[in-house]
Amino acid sequence: MLERLAKVIQHKTIDNEIHHSVEFHQKFKKKLTLQQKRAKMQKLTVENQEMLKRIQEVSPAYNHLEWEEDAKRKEHIKRCMALYPEYYDRLDKEKAEKEKMKSIKTGSITFNNTGDMSNAMDRESSPVTKLPNIHRS
């Protein structure tokens, strides 16, 4: 029995050969699914590009300039209400020293508000604009 099976498998007969029409159908089906996948991907790509374009054209809802101004106002209020304003003075000095060290490392040359050129090491920088003191009563 095994000999007969081996003989049938080794020799091409009608029963163990895939007909060329079946093979052609399998190849066609495979190509068709690939084409369908490509079409879906193309459609998705176009939709994504349209969505990106719409998102980029919308004006932003947040205004970072207002945020910065608001942060400055709150910082001023916080400094005025502080129980120990020396803390903020110390922070200002530390920040000024860091700025000075940074400018020394870079060796940058800047222009002051009069238009004169000066070395960053020569100038005294004040990191925070002095705000008027509010006296508590």
Inertia-based shape: elongated
SSE pattern: HHHHEE
Measured between the Cα atoms of the first and last residue, the distance is 114 Å
- Total strands: the figure is 2
| Cα-based radius of gyration, to the nearest Å | 39 Å
Structure description:
This protein has 137 residues and is mainly alpha-helical. The protein has a domain at 96-124. It contains 4 helices and 2 strands; from the N terminus they run H-H-H-H-E-E. It has helices at residues 2-10, 20-57, 64-81, 86-106; strands at residues 109-111, 117-119. Strands 1-2 form a two-stranded antiparallel ribbon. The longest helix has 38 residues, at 20-57. The chain is elongated, with a radius of gyration of 39 Å. The termini are far apart. Residues 117-127 have low confidence and may be disordered.
